[in-house]
Design brief:
Elements lengths: L5 H4 L28 E9 L3 H13 L5 E4 L15 E3 L6 H8 L3 H21 L11 E5 L2 H16 L4 E5 H7 L7 E5 L3 E3 L2 H14 L3 E3 L6 E4 L4 E4 L4 E9 L16 E10 L4 H7 L6 E4 L5 E5 L5 E5 L18 H14 L8 E11 L6 E5 L4 E5 L5 H17 L9 H4 L10 H19 L4 H8 L7
């Protein structure tokens, strides 16, 4: 039994371990057939999540005659693309500070490309009539500790010097927007974040791809890659693909390239959703502008309102399982749900008595720099992008676009970035990987409580790893 106050646990009495976004949604598409033959194509994409769908869509928009297929091991959007919190951010580097610490010399370009990518997502949603609840609400990054508020002031000054337009809010100012007694201030970014229904976005991208002639095969896991010199051969349980080019958009799942495994580890993130708030409850928190919210700590919560005025509340725990195992059995974690409920009630004590209706988890592909990285293989006939670290709703479009540039031999502005050309520092093998990840998580938690980075975090900073989220 979870050792949490029973007064907290009663808020979970109606919770179903189910994915909120998939709960009887009439827009959920029918399943696609499996690959049961041998075919020749120009471009084969592995993975029908955001990255794979964006790659296919852009490929067909560039060249409508190109024969493009997608192979999906399960169903479209079954991984992180269909189970995230629906925050679409313009950042390509998991936040400005993370990018600045790693790619300072090119952050002006990276930020501009991020804004261009963000606007391109919005245009695509409008162009194809994707009904995904796109709301350009902006985001509040809230401080709950005094040192976090001071760090937000420094971040605002730095970001504004690079062309952003962000504003520091006092405790009274942020509480007038969202009423929580724990807020000490916030960083307000008006135009860098949109909220979406993540499942409807992935389904809308699927329909857009199909309308352009992309063929999607579900329940067709890619089992191996083979370079025959002229083409790449990819096998599935019942079929085979001969492709001129392969784009691997597998996120946390096996990319089929052994050399990528040392760079990525899966961590599990969890979310809860409340029942719809009553008008009185809404007035008590005064969340009238529907901003997205994230906390300023290293281990942080993120939360938002849904279209039905439920509150989606997630984050904080990031659970790594020994040897990096990914399995459906890890997608339900009662102890984490209890901690999430406890912290929710600390943030919004005026919502005491509200029930949570849905709880679920999913694996995030993270790397040591907390932002995507790219690579090619088999004579540049295969490209991949990995490591989005939970902020990929927006960055996946850019990731797919760069993969296409690499495969097509296009020397674009993005391809020339150090961010694209360089790999992150790899993780050590087990058991050291497990020990070091747990040590880092412990140290980050201590830093959140004290405002000071211990010796271990300082060592990581000197090595250029900079674990800070």
């Amino acid at each position: 039994m979870v050792s949490i106050d029973p007064k907290v646990l009663r808020h979970l009495s109606m919770m179903q371990p189910a994915l909120y976004w998939l709960d009887a949604d009439p827009l959920e598409p029918e399943s696609r057939p499996s690959l049961v033959e041998e075919i020749d194509v120009d471009l084969c994409i592995v993975g029908a999540g955001y990255t794979g769908l964006w790659t296919a869509l852009i490929a067909k928009e560039r060249n409508p005659e190109r024969k493009v297929i997608i192979l999906e091991a399960k169903e479209t959007g079954a991984g992180a693309s269909g189970r995230n919190g629906g925050f679409c951010n313009s950042s390509l580097t998991h936040g400005f500070i993370n990018g600045y610490n790693r790619f300072k010399d090119e952050m002006e370009i990276v930020e501009r490309l991020g804004r261009e990518n963000f606007n391109a997502i919005e245009r695509t949603i409008e162009k194809y009539g994707i009904d995904c609840g796109w709301e350009r609400t902006g985001e509040l990054k809230v401080a709950t500790k005094p040192w976090e508020y001071e760090e937000l002031k420094d971040e605002a000054a730095l970001r504004n010097s690079y062309g952003d337009e962000v504003e520091v809010l006092s405790a009274d100012q942020v509480r007038s927007r969202i009423n929580s007694p724990i807020y000490l201030g916030a960083l307000w970014d008006e135009d860098g974040t949109a909220l979406v229904d993540p499942a409807r976005l992935v389904w809308g991208l699927e329909r857009a791809c199909l309308s352009l002639g992309v063929t999607i095969y579900e329940h067709s896991p890619a089992e191996n890659l083979e370079d025959d010199g002229e083409k790449v051969i990819l096998s599935t349980p019942y079929g085979k693909v001969r492709a001129d080019r392969i784009a691997l958009a597998t996120n946390v799942y096996d990319s089929l390239l052994r050399k990528t495994k040392k760079y990525v580890v899966p961590v599990y993130d969890f979310q809860l959703v409340t029942e719809p708030l009553t008008p009185e409850q809404l007035r008590s928190i005064n969340w009238s502008n529907r901003e997205g919210v994230s906390e300023a700590g290293n281990q942080f919560h993120y939360y938002r309102l849904t279209k039905e005025n439920e509150i989606l509340w997630g984050g904080y725990d990031a659970i790594y399982n020994y040897r990096g195992q990914v399995s459906p059995e890890y997608e339900d974690e009662p102890e984490t749900y209890a901690r999430l409920a406890r912290d929710f009630l600390k943030t919004f004590p005026q919502l005491e008595g509200i029930k949570f209706t849905h709880g679920w988890g999913g694996a995030i592909d993270t790397c040591s720099r907390f932002s995507p990285f790219w690579g090619v293989a088999m004579g540049n006939k295969v490209a991949y992008v990995l490591g989005f670290t939970g902020l990929g709703v927006g960055a996946t479009r850019f990731g797919g676009e760069i993969m296409l540039d690499l495969l097509d031999g296009i020397e674009s502005e993005g391809v020339k970035l150090k961010m694209v050309q360089k790999k992150p520092i790899p993780f050590p093998p087990e058991p050291f990987r497990f020990i070091l990840i747990r040590l880092t998580q412990f140290s980050l938690n201590r830093a959140d409580q004290t405002g000071k980075r211990n010796l271990w975090l300082k060592i990581l900073d000197r090595l250029g790893l900079g674990f800070d989220s």
